[in-house]
Write a structure and sequence with these properties.
The protein is α+β, with helices and mostly antiparallel strands and about 110 residues long. The protein is built from four helices and three strands. The protein has two domains: about 60 residues, no CATH class; about 50 residues. Keywords: Membrane, Transmembrane, Transmembrane helix.
Length: about 110
């Protein structure tokens, strides 16, 4: 799931995606305001480094919402799986949970694309 979000965050060209989602204020108006652009694994997204109008640097990082939701859902699923495995006869309770978690992760990923 995180790999799909990383692909969505860096589709076409990382520099292009940074230019399209540039911060509204504070960046230099020079042609070469974008200093660096790279894909990141944690959080799954992209990092854009801009030259600030005052001479410093502005770092924009995407992907925190999706990554944190994935981690929280993963930890929750692991806890529930351990509890269900402790009570073996309730193992089939994991099937609806897995489907709900998958649907929730797809929904979070979809919202992060907007």
């Amino acid at each position: 799931m995180l790999a799909v979000d990383l692909l969505a965050s860096t589709r076409e060209n990382i520099e292009y995606r940074c230019l399209v989602s540039a911060p509204a204020s504070g960046i230099s108006s020079a042609e070469n305001a974008l200093v660096a652009a790279r894909a990141t694994l944690f959080p799954a997204g992209r990092e854009c480094v801009w030259r600030a109008a005052d001479g410093g640097l502005i770092v924009e990082q995407t992907g925190w919402l999706t990554t944190s939701a994935f981690v929280v859902c993963g930890i929750g699923a692991l806890v529930i799986a351990i509890l269900c495995l402790a009570a073996w006869r309730y193992l089939w309770a994991l099937v609806p949970l897995a489907l709900c978690l998958a649907a929730a992760l797809v929904a979070v990923w979809w919202v992060s694309l907007l």
